[in-house]
Write a structure and sequence with these properties.
The chain is of the alpha/beta class. The chain has two domains: 42-189 and 302-370, Nucleotidyltransferase, domain 5, CATH 3.30.420; 203-286, 3-Layer(aba) Sandwich (Aminopeptidase). It contains twelve helices and 13 strands. It has a seven-stranded mixed beta sheet with strand order 1-10-7-2-3-4-11, with helices on both faces. A two-stranded antiparallel ribbon has the order 5-6. A hairpin with a 4-residue loop joins strand 3 and strand 4. It is globular and about 60 Å long. The two termini are 33 Å apart.
């Protein structure tokens, strides 16, 4: 099993105004029937992590991130009893890890960063503090799980609803209880911060292909419309008129990484998000110090975290951060352990872990190299509940 560090205490496109309206509508309808993976890319959320560390290193001014204090007792974060007992063992496979929950939020208002926004990206970052290796697991946002472990009544819902209803604390509880983890920290990044960062460093260079150019302006339109900005007003956004390698501004780049209708579908979408992160890193190298600091301060205003600066300082001063490396990425449910189900009208289409217990066993093998992991009684209970709920609804 694994452990945290022992630290001190719309979607969518523009409603049609072109000859291809019927085709676009059909594409959107078909997309709703397909499994939804991640709206936010792993790398975009990791950008928030890196910026949070950078803030400590550089001691720059600005507002900094918003801090949320987490309960200190394991029971208050729904860490299963068996997990707590495992961590007390000398030979526990979970020891020596710092597990952090990373959330990408589709928030339109700053207050939604704390609560009231769906976590369209849910990522477990497991950091081995001995080997300086990082493994990432994305929990698909529509995964059917118990989203309020200490609540009453029917609390099984899409995973991204946990942050919406209870912020980082409830989302952490969901991950701990359903996956036998002991997460105590989180970082959440607002989507608007990405756009501001790109603009602050002067734009980024990306290669727009013939599939993407069909949709990028629709997504710009949709983003502005969601914010309550009139996208049809003169100069509201700058259209992308040609394919090829070119500089995109913040809104264009944000639209680029949200395009769902790509060859390769959602897998291609996450690849585009990786390309965007690399483009940001490359452009930042060319930017002035003032531009970098401005981008940094803008990003911090779109970050909510439970991690205080003094908790990061030991890792900044005693370790070479450049040595930390990502050695594995994957997703849960696993590709051979999931299915689609139409639940009731309130829950809609969900991604079903066909056997939650098997998925959790795989997770602990992937993160902590535990070849013989036995799930807790909590996970056994949840696994049976999910099967009972969904066995007659699977497609």
């Amino acid at each position: 099993m694994g452990t945290t560090k022992n630290h001190p205490q719309n979607n969518g496109g523009r409603p049609g105004d072109s000859a291809g309206t019927r085709k676009a509508v059909a594409q959107r309808a078909a997309a709703r029937k397909r499994r939804k993976f991640i709206v936010f890319g792993v790398e975009i959320v990791l950008l928030g992590v890196m910026l949070a560390i950078l803030w400590v290193v550089m001691h720059v001014g600005g507002e900094g991130p918003t801090y949320v204090e987490m309960p200190s007792e394991p029971e208050s974060l729904a860490i299963p009893t068996e997990v707590q007992q495992e961590l007390e063992k000398e030979d526990s496979t979970m020891k020596g890890y710092w597990n952090i929950a990373l959330f990408g939020l589709d928030a339109n208002k700053k207050k939604q960063l704390v609560k009231g926004a769906h976590s369209d990206s849910i990522i477990i970052a497991s950091i081995n503090l001995d080997t300086e290796e990082i493994r990432l697991v994305s929990v698909l946002r529509d995964t059917y799980l118990n989203t309020n472990p200490d609540g009453e009544g029917d609390t099984y819902f899409k995973a991204n609803n946990a942050y919406f209803t209870g912020g980082g604390e409830r989302a952490i509880k969901m991950l701990n209880a359903n996956l036998d983890l002991n997460i105590t920290d989180f970082i959440a990044v607002g989507f608007d911060g990405l756009e501001a960062i790109v603009d602050a460093i002067g734009g980024v260079y990306l290669d727009v292909d013939d599939t993407e150019i069909q949709h990028i302006d629709n997504y710009q339109w949709s983003i502005l419309n969601t914010r309550g900005v009139d996208p049809d007003a003169p100069g509201a956004f700058t259209k992308v008129t040609q394919t090829g390698y070119q500089k995109l501004n913040g809104l264009q780049a944000t639209a680029y990484c949200r395009i769902r209708y790509r060859k390769g579908n959602d897998f291609a979408r996450t690849q585009a998000q990786r390309e965007l992160l690399m483009a940001i890193a490359e452009q930042a190298k060319q930017a002035s110090l003032d531009q970098v600091l401005n981008a940094f301060n803008v990003a911090m205003e779109n970050v909510v975290t439970s991690i205080q600066p003094e908790e990061l300082l030991p890792y900044v001063t005693e370790a070479n951060l450049a040595n930390f490396k990502i050695v594995g990425e994957d997703s849960l449910p696993q590709s051979d352990m999931w299915g689609d189900a139409s639940m009731d009208n309130r829950k809609g289409e969900c991604v079903i872990p066909l056997d939650l217990q098997s998925n959790v066993e795989w997770l602990h093998k992937f993160l902590f190299a535990d070849e013989n992991y036995s799930v807790s009684t909590v996970v056994q209970e949840y696994s049976k509940h999910i099967k009972n709920d969904t066995q007659n609804r699977l497609k």
